[in-house]
Amino acid sequence: MTKQQASKLLSENLTAIYGYAFARLYDKEDVEDLTGEIVCQVLSSAERLEKEESFWGFVWKIAENTFRKFLKQKAKQALPTEDTDPMGETAPSAEDSYLSSAEESEELFRLRRELALLTKTNREVCVAYYMEEKSCSEIAGEQNISVEMVKYHLFKTRKLLKEGIGMTRQLGEKSYNPGVFRVNFWGSKNEYWELFQRKLPGSIVLAAYYTAMTAPELSLETGVPMPYLEDELEILLKAKVLKKEGDRYRTNLVILTDVYEKEFVSKTSHVYKPLAEKLFAEAKALLPSVRKLDFKGNDYDDNRLLFAILNIAFTQGWLQAEETSPVGEMPPLPSGRGVGWVFGHDNDYANRHFYGVTMKTYNKAWNAWYSAENYRILEKNQRYDHACFPEKSEALGDAILGKESSEEEWILEYLARENIVFRNGRMLTPNFPVFTKAVFEQLLGILDPLSCQVESCMIQISEKAEATLAEHAPPTVRDQCAPIAKIHHRMDVAAFLMEALIGDGSLTLPAEKTPLCIWGVREDM
């Protein structure tokens, strides 16, 4: 907004400005002085205002600030001199009452703020003594500490409150911009998914990633009072997502930041296209040999069969890379009910290339297994939902074995609706390749040249990723970089290869839902 526009609006509404000043001051000269000062301040600041519709909110904010300054200036001018009686008693003016009320509100706000920043024991002792009027001995019994410690906490609390009330504290960015944290997991049982369905745990993890922070610092950073924050900190400590360093909390997992992922992709993107072209040409040449094998699906058209055998080669490459350069033993989960690696992202999975991977999942009888790779680029054709995983796995095992399923109706409906199986009552027919164990081993032999090339690429990429990730991660979690790089980036190699083949038209996505990257194996034959 220009000064000319602001001047025009003020001229048309000068009576409102005058009325504002008159309602707050008694003296006519003071009213005129304040009105003039408000107008000057508005005109000098008008160019900072971008939207004209915000003008009057802008004006009244400036008016309030100008009024406060006006009163403070008058108070300074009214200080007693040698010629005045400092003990003279007069009734407080409207200005004095206003300033006194504002100062009391500010003091009360600061006191409440500092109480909210006290740690648990200090806060509870303070509240019990001053608000609930309990004796030191009563508090000692409730807190299970000595009377001397109660007195120490009271002394420390008074000191902290006195210091804090005089401080200007600013809430951190996470208080109004919590950021995005998304969890990722590789293991037998994901116990972290529900933990991060709320914003606060993610904000804490992001805030304490590069710098260890005390609980009061995290309280200010997130804008959450300590009584509420403490429970979250305890939950995250128990889950080993956070760890304590003295009185400070630090994030105890690797975060694959958006900056890191984009930097790494820019360094390695040149690798995939030439390798994808080579693998596709070799896979196409192997089709006649593959079709000679006796398995369900050997009569699929070339496009669909190529999807299947390339995905099997990619997955086998991952398994071979794990043998050559192991990820390492998965750590036990805090609950003791499973094992796995947990890591995270500082964005809404913007850089992910999978919607979950299911590798060699057996049924309860261990006589059938299946694999399902949910490449993001295949989302419209195949997105195998991992919810109710054991029940769905059992139903797919029944389909692979060619027997009626006893699973719940909605499980069977889901598998049929997604075209993963064809259904006749409780009899399920797989809509994906199914091999006997012997035939599958023959297929792996045919595809071995492809799998070995994929294995080599995955190992090279993960080694580069480990080095780059270690540069981005805090020193305290660098020991986790190697397994996370192997888990995350080796699978991404498969995704980049698949995306390259679809992108250049070598592979074509069908119009309907089709499980392009699911296959099963019967162990009983």
- Poorly predicted runs: 81-90
| Strand line-up across the major sheet | 7-8-12-11
What is the overall number of helices? 18
Give the overall silhouette: elongated
Helical proportion, percent range: 40-55%
User: What is the structural class?
Assistant: alpha+beta
**Count of β-strands:** 12
In sequence order, what are the helices and strands, one letter per element? HHHHHHHHEHEHHEEEHHHEEEHHEEEHHE
**Content of β-strand:** 5-15%
The biggest sheet, with number of strands, parallel, antiparallel or mixed sense and barrel status, is:
4 strands, mixed
What is the end-to-end distance? 81 Å
If you average the pLDDT, what whole number results? 86
Our Rg estimate from Cα atoms comes to 34 Å
Question: How would you summarize this macromolecular structure in one to three sentences?
Answer:
This protein is of the alpha+beta class. It has helices at residues 3-12, 14-22, 28-45, 55-77, 94-117, 120-131, 136-143, 147-165, 199-207, 215-222, 226-238, 258-268, 272-291, 302-324, 389-401, 409-417, 437-472, 481-503; strands spanning 182-187, 213-214, 242-245, 248-251, 255-256, 340-345, 354-362, 368-375, 421-424, 427-430, 434-436, 518-522.
Sum up the structure in keywords.
12 strands; alpha+beta; three-stranded mixed β-sheet; 18 helices; four-stranded mixed β-sheet; 525 residues
